[in-house]
Amino acid sequence: MGVMVTINDLRAARMCGRAARPWFIRHDLDWNAFITVGIDAEVLRTTGDALALKVIAVAEERTNG
């Protein structure tokens, strides 16, 4: 498993959880699992969504320091 993206990364990217939840549903991703354990960055990357890529960048910065 690679970098895990968490709700804290979403917040650090200045994104709103209220808007992210429907996005997760549209992409058939488990919002509740994301909230509790996070989601592998590669799963988000496959969406090709620019905002997802922004959150991934925050998570990678956190883990790579």
Low-confidence stretches: none
Given helix and strand content, the structural type is: mainly alpha
Domains (count)? 1
Number of strands: 2
**Spatial sequence of strands, sheet with the most strands:** 1-2
Order of helices and strands: EHHHEHH
User: How many helices?
Assistant: 5
Q: Kindly state the percentage of residues in helix.
A: 55-70%
- Overall mean pLDDT: 94
Q: Strand count, sense and closure of the main sheet? A: 2 strands, antiparallel
Strand portion, in percent? 5-15%
Q: Give the overall shape.
A: globular
- Tell me the radius of gyration: 10 Å
| N-end to C-end Cα span | 18 Å
Descriptive key words:
65 residues; mainly alpha; 2 strands; 6% strand
Describe the structure.
The chain is globular and about 30 Å long. It has 65 residues and is mainly α. The protein has one domain (4-64). The protein has five helices and two strands, in the order βαααβαα.
Give the SSE layout.
Blueprint lengths: L3 E2 L1 H6 L4 H10 L4 H7 L1 E2 H5 L4 H15 L1
Antiparallel strand pairs: 1-2
Tell me briefly what this model is.
The protein has 65 residues and is mainly alpha-helical. The protein has five helices and two strands.
